[in-house]
Amino acid sequence: MDVNELYRLAKEWTLEAGTNLRQAVVQEVEVEYKTSAADLVTQKDKEIERFFSKKIKEAFPDHFLLGEEGVSEGQSAYDPQKETVWLVDPIDGTTNFVHNKRNFSISVGVYHEGEPLVGIIYDVMSDEMFHVLIGNGLYVNETRVEPLGEEKTYEQALIAMNHLWLAPNDYLAEQPLQQMVQEIRGFRCIGSAALELAYVAVGRFEAAIFNGLGPWDFGAASVLLQEQGVKFTTVSGDPVNVFKHSSVLTATKTLHGTIQSRYIELK
Ligand code: IPD
Ligand code: CA
Ligand code: CA
Ligand code: CA
After folding, report:
1. Which atom of ligand 1 is least distant from the CA of 190?
2. Is 90 in the pocket of ligand 1 (CB under 6 A)?
3. Binding-site residue positions
4. Are 252 and 207 in contact (CB under 8 A)?
5. Of 34, 98, 213, which is best to mutate to test ligand 1, by the most ligand atoms within 8 angstroms of its C-beta?
6. What is the pLDDT of residues 214-248, one digit of tens each?
7. Superfamily of chain region 3-144
8. What are the TM regions of this chain, as residue ranges (predicted)?
9. May I ask the CATH architecture of the domain 154-263?
10. Strand (E) positions, the chain?
């Protein structure tokens, strides 16, 4: 497999999908509920995932696709540790796509025999692509991102979280994160986990804590974070299996330890 060609194609397809979505924000889109009125899917989520499925099948017929909308559900069973797998979220932040028409992304992660190869997160409306071919540096569009500088303390930290931490959940005994948001500099919830994780990789946020993500949400981000040497674990501090659902914590080294020991009191 020519990995440079795979990287080039993955970026090209992502840009093409992004152009499609940029045009779609000014059109009427069909919105359906999945599990509830807070869990949306549009015909664009499915169309973009089908687009990736078709492109991957044509260019790399022996690769597998794991996407949020399950357009490849008919594919044969496979062992991700022995295959090349594309983890694709066609729209990460569908609610933003439907409501405010910005702050949504396309997330594409490629793994070969379980090892990270390529990670791409594309902020469609800002036309900002975060991308990595493993070992070759993290780029934002054409600009190489410097290694992260001196670590910030948690008093200086901007930390992203999703709203699910505010509700009773399977992980936290109490609500220690309430204390955390009073002690840190700022808390953010953009509504696209992939984008928020990319922001940690480039140093725009110092940490992110997400409840209940799937392989398509963090498949690309995990590659970006690894390339930058940023710690990315489950909230319990274990390595993330990117092919399974997980609640995750990413942060620069010391901050990761502080957040975990001070605030994440697992049930
Ligand atoms: C969602 C977004 C959101 C996060 C949710 C995800 P979707 O993805 O990333 O920020 O809080 O947990 O499911 O459904 O818009 O692709
Ligand atoms: Ca969704
Ligand atoms: Ca998602
Ligand atoms: Ca999605």
Report:
1. 10
2. no
3. 68, 89, 91-92, 217
4. yes
5. 213
6. 999 999 999 999 999 999 999 989 999 999 999 99
7. Fructose-1,6-Bisphosphatase, subunit A, domain 1 (3.30.540.10)
8. none
9. 3-Layer(aba) Sandwich (3.40)
10. 31-33, 40-42, 64-67, 84-92, 105-112, 115-123, 128-133, 138-140, 143-144, 158-161, 186-188, 207-213, 231-234, 246-251
- Could you tell me if the CB of 92 is within 6 A of ligand 1? yes
Between strands 115-123 and 128-133, the pairing is antiparallel
Structure confidence by residue, pLDDT tens digits, 177-217: 778 888 999 999 999 999 999 999 999 999 999 989 999 99
DSSP string, 79-103: -TTTSEEEEEEEEE-HHHHHHTS-S
In one-letter notation, the amino acid at residue 2 is D
Domain borders along the chain are: 3-144, 154-263
Residue type, 160: A
Q: Could you tell me which residues come within 8 angstroms of residue 113 by beta carbon, excluding any fewer than 6 positions away?
A: 81, 82, 83, 84
CB-ligand 1 contact for 68 (6 Å cutoff): yes
Reported ipTM: the value is 0.98
